[in-house]
Request: fold
Amino acid sequence: MVASIVASAALVVVLVSKWDELQAGITGAAAGVIALAIALQVVALVSRSEAWRVCVHASGGTVSRRKLYRASSMGCVGQLLNSQLGTAARITALRRTAPEQTPHVPALIAAELPILFVEASLAALTSFTLVGPLGLPWWAPVLCVAAVGSVGLVFRNIAAAHARWLRKGLSVLRSQKGSVRLVGFVLIAVFAQIARNWLLLRAVGVDASVFDAVAVLIAVVSLGQLPFGLSVGAAASVLILGPQGVAAATAAGVLLTATGTVGGLAFATWALLDLAALRWLTPIPTGGPWSVLAALPAAHCRAIEGCYFGGLSHLQITRVLGVAPA
Reply:
């Protein structure tokens, strides 16, 4: 948190002389554009959450979509400061809310790797967009693709040979259907982020192409591994598009951060409201233990009957004990 605050303060100091241009760029964006950018952020978060659900279920989890989405929304809040913090918050929330329906923590950590691998592969394939803005040599994208491919082979060998938790977390990659769904949801999330970048860059007056929007996304994800916090969007925009105007690029970065934050908080707000509705609006079963037992999910009901009642159903028990059925 300290490093994040320091990085943000340093960026403010650098841009204080261009405050008027920065303010004009931020306030010049239309409200409809801002709303659309927030909606695209929500689409990206939901799509990535669905990709995570595919990986968790392939690893042996049976957690419901609503519980997993609520846990994922907690990760969105933590990710405002650092991506690793967001991952830790997401996994912790999922284990707390559904400990019996999810794999153990090591397998959940490994279940993050397929998503990261797909994202890294897409970044490597589009890394040619960084050659011009950063002055990289022409062979840098080739090196990126080779590096990501090597990491994929290492994961596959380790999962097959040694680590059970890693093999369990990477189970989705051994299923054609699971792999297709994973790549599809990640692509939706990535395309939504690229569209949001391009939309906001154009809104503040930057003559940006789709390739520029891709480069900014790669920079945001890369710098997000460092403790830049809320200043990561502005830092990435200046890094890629600074030559076209520092103030305009920073304004776009500020809007990227703002819309991303609002989208993440909207997702988290839905999770809190959904949890409140589940706890406060769900009627409490009445009529004694038989009604409570009948209201349980079928799998839980059978487990209780098998463990405590020797396999008799609750209707059979009521007849044996002479209790009126619920």
The chain has a mean pLDDT of 81. Residues 304 and 310 are 9 Å apart (CA to CA). The longest helix spans residues 246-280.
